[in-house]
Amino acid sequence: MSPVIGVVAPRILAPAVMLAAGLIVKGYSDTGEGFSAGVIVALAIGLRYITLGRRRADRTLAVARHANVVAAAGLLIALGFGFQGVLSGAPPFTHLPPPGSPVIGIGTLELTTAVGFDVGLFLLVAGSLTVLIRYLTELLPDPADDPGDER
Amino acid sequence: MNLVFALAAAILFGIGAYLVLQRDLVRLVLGVAVISQSAVLTLLAASLRLGAAPIYPLPEGTLSDPLSQAMALTAIVIGMAVTALLLVLVFRVAVAFRSDELEEVAGEEVSLDARLEETEGEAHEREEAAAR
Amino acid sequence: MTALSIALLIPWAAGVALLAVDGRRAWVPWISVGALAATLITLGAVAAQVLASGPVTMTTGNWPVGVGITLRADALGVTFALLSVAMLTAAVVHEAFDGVAEREFPALVLLLAAGLEGAFLTGDIFNFYVFFELALAASYVLALHGPGPRVLGAGLVFTAVNVVGTFVFLLSVAGVYRVTATLDMARIGERMAVADPNAAILIAVGFFVAFSVKLGLFPFHFWLPTVYTAARPAVAAILSGSVANIGAYGLLRFGAGLLPRELELAAGALIVLGGASILYGGVLAISRRSAGEMLAYSAIGQVGYVLVAIGIGGPVGFAAAIAYAIVNAANKTMLFLTTSQRGVVVGGLFALGALSIAGIPPAAGFVGKLEVFRAVVGDPVVAGVLLLGSLLSLVYAFEVYQVEHWRPAADATAVRVSWRAWVVPVALGGVILALGVWPEPLLALSDAAARVLPGANP
User: Fold this and answer.
1) Is the confidence at residue C167, as pLDDT, over 90?
2) What is the pLDDT of residue C278?
3) Which of C148, C150, C159 is the closest to B85 by Cβ?
């Protein structure tokens, strides 16, 4: 493994999460949305699993062990935001607040149901791809530069 | 332009179909992935207009057809999910049969079936003996 | 309108939530049963509204009509949705009594129900594709539920074949959009009528291949026997009783609904393929000795009747196809649930199912066969093939009955099955018997469903 990857892999996750957050937020006036954000985070997690091996990656990233729960929660969040209109008799995927009415904003972040839906989608994609990564790295031998980890 | 798209999609589909028909199971997954790209390309080629990106605030001039882009994005997502599923399946098959060659898997299956039939046949014989 | 959204939301949300818990615990499948029952009730409400006052349409996101995705429940869609969810419920109740063997089974069945329902109740062909994939993804994983490593190979074949099939479907969707500039089923029908015939035929062939693969029709059947025999009985029941419906529905909706001109053009080919399916399935089923294998080949033969009825077309033909699909789903679900069981009750049920497959009164299969024969009455050759197919099914069904139920079972434990193992098949048998004795509701429903299709109103 090249030393560059060894240095980059453990440190890339935080910037990836920042980038993902940016993609979700700016998805409403520019390119970006929850799916690509999720893929980016999952790629960073994947790099970490490949370089560190599954056991060490699991230890340094405890949340990855519950990726299936994250994915299910994300899907439930997305469904909740998608079907909230049903409560008031509107069809699914109705925006709240409706187009044209004032939106509560925190800085440039505008709180609409679409943002909530995308956050759910992001969790779903990142979670399910992490499940896949962990599944496929299960039988991968741990990297050789990891002697302290035996037993 | 249409011809280029059509040719590219056809070539992708051909490559994918060739790979799917190989014995190697990893190639099967790759073939499915390539076929999915062929479908995505066809969806994009089916768009009715080509032009600037249709993102608000709308630029001047002709805009691309947003619907076929939305369809292509959805197809990419679904293609990814299906490829992931197939990959896991191949992984499990490879672990269970200790081989990623379809023929060996089939051979393993045949021997399993033969063993099953053997035991079944013995059971039948015992039954018939008991009936007599 | 709200009922339609709720009917979609219940199985979807419940399925996702159940993924988090271990389905082998005794109470989990009952939650799944409860959610499916709630879905059935909501669907029943939608169906009552549809049958009383015409289709229910809803555009998502309050978009103007023509921009947003439409969900549309008409008589045809609601019929197939009710049928599939009812069969799924039967299979899950059976597994809940019998003990669920796989962790994610209850959740997967709910997700499968959500996908099937969405596909049957949408008015947008791309949305149909998305729900189609959701249902198929759930069925790919379900197909892995079976004993031994053999099921893995079968599941791989099933997944690979169907994935390629759905991409062929997607290519046709792209073609439709290019030709008609819309994805809305109602408008596609109008615009297809004036489209370039060559393009339309190409698109129609794509749809036909995609749905025939799903249905397991004769030249596309090669995956079916391996998969149906390797999976658990309940999974085989789900695959043949619920998932296969999507093929029949697709042929009706996309053939008779969107491309009636092309369907008429291909009528001869459909009848020939259907006849080939009937004979092939029948002859190969005769050579099988175990109930599971016989049923797998019989499934190939039975869908041939649906295809012949669709090929005949017209109000009588489409109604016959729908009635046959309903009866066949009930037959197959009941018979697959009874495989690998023995005893007096199961023997009786098997005999009833065999009568139903062969089309002998008082079983419901008689009604289905009678409808198909009514459709082909003017054509002695086709009627002869259908009759031959019925004779073959009588032979193979009772041959297996003889082998499986007249001989003492190979191991004695199989004989003493508790009431839990046959309560669901008995209920299904009751339905089959009731539909055979009093077929009016079935015929009225399939008539109403067929009248939705433009090909049925010349």
Assistant:
1) yes
2) 92
3) C159
Interface touch C61/A95, C-beta < 8 Å: yes
> In angstroms, what CA-CA distances link C392 with C239, C385, C451?
24, 10, 32
Number of domains in chain C: 1
Asked if residue C159 is part of any domain, the answer here is no
Pull the structure tokens for residue C257.
């609904």
* DSSP secondary structure string for all residues of C276-304: HHHHHHHHHHHT--SHHHHHHHHHHHHHH
Q: CB distance from C414 to chain A under 8 Å?
A: no
Residues of A in contact with C71 (CB under 8 A): 91
Kindly determine whether residue C16 and residue A72, on different chains, have CB atoms separated by under 8 Å.
Answer: yes
Q: Which of residues 11-30 of C touch A (CB under 8 A)?
A: 12-13, 16-17, 19-20
Minimal Cβ distance to B42: which of C144, C164, C174: C174
Element (H, E) at C71: strand C70-73
- Whether A132 contacts chain B with CB within 8 A: yes
Instruction: List helix spans (H) across chain A.
Output: 3-11, 13-26, 34-52, 54-60, 67-83, 113-136
- Please say whether the beta carbons of C124 and C21 come within 8 A: no
Size of the A and C interface in Cβ pairs below 8 Å: 48
Please, what sign has the CA dihedral across residues C263, C268, C271, C275? Answer: negative
C434 domain-assigned: yes
> pLDDT by residue (tens digit) across A28-85?
666 778 888 999 999 999 998 888 888 888 888 888 888 888 999 999 999 999 888 8
The end-to-end CA distance of chain A, in Å, is: 23
- Count of beta carbons in the 10 Å neighbourhood of residue C31: 18
Give how far A97 is from chain C: nearest CA, Å: 12
Q: What is the mean pLDDT of chain A?
A: 82
> Taking Cα atoms as reference points, which of C158, C254, C244, C175 lies closest to residue C208?
C254
pLDDT band at C280 (very low <50, low <70, confident <90, very high): very high
- CB < 8 Å to C153, chain B: 93, 97, 105-106, 109
Chain B nearest-CA distance from A35, in A, is: 8
User: Are the C-beta atoms of C335 and C291 separated by less than 8 Å?
Assistant: yes
Under an 8 Å CB criterion, which residues of B touch A?
53, 55-56, 73, 77, 81, 84, 87-88, 91, 95
Nearest-angstrom CA–CA distance, C268 and C288 = 31
B partners (3+ CB pairs within 8 A) are A, C
Q: Which domains, and CATH codes, for chain B?
A: 2-100 (1.10.287)
Can you tell me the distance from the alpha carbon of B73 to that of C368, in angstroms, rounded to the nearest whole number? 43
* Contact criterion met (CB < 8 Å) for C167 and B35: yes
- Mean pLDDT, range C92-97, rounded to an integer: 90
CA-atom Rg of chain C in angstroms: 21
* Structural domain span for residue C396: 266-458
Residue A133 in this model has a pLDDT that exceeds 70? yes
Structure confidence by residue, pLDDT tens digits, B58-88: 777 788 888 888 899 899 989 989 998 999 8
Residue C179 lies in a domain: no
The minimal CB distance from B88 to the residues A29, A31, A135 is found for A135
Residue C253 lies in a domain: no
Among the partner residues A72, A75, A91, nearest to C61 by beta-carbon distance: A91
pLDDT at residue number C177: 92
Q: Report the sign of the C-alpha dihedral through residues C13, B83, B93, B123, in that order.
A: positive
Mean pLDDT, range C416-437, rounded to an integer = 85
Q: C interface mutation test: which of A35, A81, A87, A93 has the most C CBs within 10 A?
A: A93
Using a CB-CB cut-off of 8 Å, the residues of chain C touching B85 are: 137, 140-141, 159
Question: What is the mean predicted confidence (pLDDT) over C40-52?
Answer: 93
Distances (CA, A) of A112 to A28, A97, A98, B61, C59: 10, 6, 9, 30, 20
